[in-house]
Amino acid sequence: MEWIHENLPYRISDSTEELQPDVIHALLRSSYWASERPKDVIVRSLEGSLCFGLYNGETQVGFMRVVTDGATFSWLCDVIVDPGHRGRGLGKWMMEVVVGHPRISHTSIALGTRDAHGLYEKYGFVRQEMMRRRPVDRQN
Question: Which InterPro entries does this one have (predicted)?
Fold first, then answer.
């Protein structure tokens, strides 16, 4: 599926064929949660997820992905917009797209984050009290 922004020259696509792994890797290297995630791990994570690319023309400038069983539960992760494209409401638009996506809109959606709580709360997210984190398996 594809979504075209009504006022800005951006679009969102859930087509995995359009994803630009080098761009995604660079974006995630600038994050606090995935700065050390190897590119091969990122590529594998794309294969098992519902992914959304944010594009300005043909250039990918944002990303988010969802791990889901498609029936009851989804995990939203790796939500990021290139710093040069922030401040335009693109994060809000990305959230509208993801929570309305027909594959997951009927599921409970979890998210773990240290920031942007106000943004996520606007879309029905509540702050979690517990979450078990596992280290990245760099071998497999």
Answer: Acetyltransferase_Butenolide, Acyl_CoA_acyltransferase, GNAT_dom
Question: In a 10 Å sphere around its CB, with 0-12 CB exposed, 13-18 middle and 19+ buried, how is residue 5 labelled?
Answer: middle
What per-residue confidence (pLDDT) applies to 138? Answer: 55
CATH number, residue 115: 3.40.630.30
On whether residue 128 sits in a domain, the answer given is no
Q: Report how many domains make up the chain.
A: 1
Find residue 2's DSSP bridge partners. Answer: 13
* Domain assignment of residue 44, given as a range: 2-121
> Quick check: 105 and 99 in contact, CB under 8 A?
yes
Query: What are 16's two structure tokens?
Result: 């995995």
Does position 40 have pLDDT exceeding 60, yes or no? yes
Q: How confident is the model at residue 129 (pLDDT cuts 50, 70, 90)?
A: low
Distance, in Å, from the CA atom of 61 to the CA atom of 76, rounded to the nearest integer, reads: 18
pTM metric for this prediction: 0.85
By the 8 A CB rule, do 98 and 80 touch? no
